[in-house]
């Protein structure tokens, strides 16, 4: 009988057997209590430092991203909509989806009611022709047939939104 944390450690040990240079951790904290999650993240950080590993983490947990990543890529419906140094993206998110995502995180200070993102994900077999976030975007002003390119908004940070065209 192994606990969730033990199972994660076994998986990490197995993944390291072939001495990879890149470790991909897909939702490493899922189904773990907060204490065990912190231990697993600490272990991953130690491995990165000790072995010079590159770590690619895939997660929905913004707290884990903020704590663990140097660089973040925000994805919506299979597309990277914003990327940049973690601190820059969290301090000043520029894409409407990134902003909406961060507004979903409950604040310890309270005060505001938590809100989700209206609508639902597009059908991946028939996605919207232009910006995939358009059907849910509160800032969408007009339908476009082409997907927005990435515009640089700060050194190392870019976001794919037509509203940023003028500022880029
Ligand atoms: S390109 Fe338009 S629809 Fe897409 S995120 Fe920007 S404002 Fe919203």
TrEMBL record:
Record key words, sorted: ATP-binding, Cell membrane, Membrane, Nucleotide-binding, Transport
Cellular component terms, GO, for this chain's entry? plasma membrane
Q: Which SUPFAM superfamilies match?
A: P-loop containing nucleoside triphosphate hydrolases (SSF52540)
Coarse class of the protein's main subcellular location:
membrane
How does this chain sit within the bilayer?
Peripheral membrane protein
Molecular function via GO: ATP binding; ATP hydrolysis activity
Write down the Gene3D superfamilies for this protein, in alphabetical order: P-loop containing nucleotide triphosphate hydrolases
Q: Does the keyword Transport apply?
A: yes
Q: Does the keyword Lipid biosynthesis apply?
A: no
- ABC transporter domain: from which residue to which, for each copy? 2-28
Which biological process annotations from GO are given for this protein?
peptide transport
User: Where in the cell?
Assistant: Cell inner membrane
List, for all copies, the residue spans of the domain called Oligopeptide/dipeptide ABC transporter C-terminal: 81-142
PANTHER family noted in UniProt? DIPEPTIDE TRANSPORT ATP-BINDING PROTEIN DPPD, OLIGOPEPTIDE TRANSPORT ATP-BINDING PROTEIN APPD
Which family does the UniProt entry place this protein in? Answer: Belongs to the ABC transporter superfamily.
| Protein name from the UniProt record | Oligopeptide/dipeptide ABC transporter ATP-binding protein
């Amino acid at each position: 009988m192994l606990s969730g944390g033990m199972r994660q450690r076994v998986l990490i040990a197995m993944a390291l057997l072939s001495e990879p240079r890149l470790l991909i951790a897909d939702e490493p904290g899922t189904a773990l209590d907060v204490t065990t999650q912190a231990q697993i993240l600490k272990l991953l950080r130690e491995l990165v430092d000790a072995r010079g590993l590159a770590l690619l983490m895939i997660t929905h947990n913004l707290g884990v991203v903020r704590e663990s990543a140097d660089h973040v890529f925000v994805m919506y419906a299979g597309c990277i909509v914003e990327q940049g140094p973690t601190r820059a993206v969290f301090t000043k998110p520029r894409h409407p989806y990134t902003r909406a995502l961060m507004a979903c995180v409950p604040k310890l200070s309270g005060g505001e009611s938590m809100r989700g993102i209206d609508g639902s994900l597009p059908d991946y077999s028939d996605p919207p022709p232009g910006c995939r976030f358009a059907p849910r975007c509160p800032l969408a002003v007009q339908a476009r047939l082409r997907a927005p390119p990435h515009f640089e908004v700060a050194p190392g940070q870019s976001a794919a939104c037509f509203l940023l065209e003028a500022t880029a």
